[in-house]
Design goal:
The chain is an all-alpha fold and about 140 residues long. About 75% of the residues lie in helices and about 0% in strands. The protein has 6 helices and no strands.
Length: about 140
């Protein structure tokens, strides 16, 4: 299967899951919000746990079905991954959401705030790749 076909199918499935969650429960499929609310002790935790388990189980199941490691091994060291995770967590708190909440759900609702956040996500990602690949010579790889 060509990579663009896999990307297309994955994108459709992400969009469909966001629509289904909004239509069935009136909730936005923002992963950072779903995950952080589990730590704050909200009452309706069941669907959140199932949603997050699905995110973890799906790539694992796909790798079993394909007979290959669809997940792959980390290409950077654990300290780099921890630092990146902390920065993502901080960014989602400051930005009031993550790429899934703003980029998928917020843009679908025509939110100007989500458009601005998504533009900054993309620009920051592009700048990060440029700095790591061209200025630092591939640090962490």
């Amino acid at each position: 299967m060509h990579p663009w076909i896999s990307s297309l199918i994955g994108g459709v499935m992400i969009g469909l899951s966001a629509v289904l969650l909004m239509a069935s429960m009136g909730r936005i499929a923002g992963i950072s919000g779903i995950a952080s609310s589990l730590l704050t002790g909200v009452r309706d935790q069941g669907w959140r746990i199932v949603f997050l388990l699905g995110l973890v189980a799906a790539p694992w199941l796909l790798s079993l079905l394909r007979g290959e490691n669809a997940i792959g091994a980390p290409v950077v060291s654990w300290p780099w991954m921890a630092a990146a995770g902390l920065l993502v967590g901080l960014g989602t708190r400051i930005g009031s959401g993550c790429t899934s909440g703003h980029g998928v759900c917020g843009l679908a609702r025509l939110s100007r705030r989500s458009l601005l956040a998504t533009v900054f996500f993309v620009v920051a990602g592009m700048a990060t790749v440029f700095v790591i690949r061209h200025l630092l010579g591939g640090v962490g790889a």
